[in-house]
Amino acid sequence: MSHIGKFILLVLIFSSFSLFAQQNSENELAMLQREDWNAKKPVMEMKSHKPQFITIHHTGMPQKPQLSIEKKLQALQNFSQKDSPMADGSIKKAWADVPYHFYIATNGKIAEGRNINFQGNSNTDYNLEGHVLIVVEGDFNNEKVLPQQWESLKELISYISSEYDISRNTISGHKDQAETSCPGSNLYQKLPQLR
Fold first, then answer.
1. Which of 39, 43, 81, 103 could pair covalently with 111 via S-S, beta carbons 3.0-4.6 A apart?
2. Which pairing describes strands 84-85 and 102-104: parallel, antiparallel, or unpaired?
3. Taking a C-beta distance cutoff of 8 angstroms, is the pair 152, 109 a contact?
4. Average model confidence (pLDDT) for the chain?
């Protein structure tokens, strides 16, 4: 093979590799992994499931931009893994781990919560099998979804939909599944745009 032929072959190989790398990076999503926020291990067995639906929640608490996402996830895990008092005075029984698979903070940062291959938890009564639970920080009955949260939610939905082959038509709000006002009217009214 001539020098020119070898050069052209190298250019073609490099171009193919660059295109492959670019496609891979497009499928990647900037996200804090569990180890990044110092997650503890689950404290009990969890039920495995196949991700099939996407369900949107809000934290139902006022946004706290001054707290880091790492601190928020650690606090959520501490609350989740023990019997904890609820706002209405009832006691929530301990869960194995954080209830949600993904958390979106006020600055738009996304964090991995519970392993997506295991069912989440809820204080409401509905069948969680197959539901990928995303929680957005805030009380969206009283607060607005911040632009950076909305952008991150759209990116996360695209990632989950592509990575796990889940139709966007499965996107619902928590209130579509159970007796609750979650994810709050200001977020719920925007969900059709995600589908």
1. 103
2. unpaired
3. yes
4. 86
For the stretch 166-171, contacts whose Cβ atoms lie closer than 8 Å and that sit 24 or more positions apart, written own/partner, are: 166/51, 166/52, 166/53, 166/54, 166/132, 168/54, 168/194, 168/195, 169/195, 170/52, 170/53, 170/54, 171/53, 171/54, 171/55, 171/56, 171/195
pTM of the full structure:
0.83
- Tokens at residue 3, please? 């020098």
For residues 186 and 145, the answer to whether their CB atoms sit within 8 Å is yes
Query: Dihedral of CA 145/147/152/158: which sign?
Result: positive
Extract long-range pairs of 187-195: CB within 8 Å, 24+ residues apart. Answer: 187/56, 187/58, 187/136, 187/138, 187/140, 187/145, 188/56, 188/140, 190/145, 190/150, 191/56, 194/56, 194/153, 194/154, 194/157, 194/168, 195/168, 195/169, 195/171
pLDDT at 18 over 90: no
Tokens for 33, please give them.
């992994």
Domains, the chain, with CATH or none? 49-193 (3.40.80.10)
Beta-strand pair 102-104/53-58: unpaired
Beta bridge partners of 136: 58, 104
Structure tokens given for 34:
């569990």
Q: Rg of the chain over CA atoms, in angstroms? A: 20
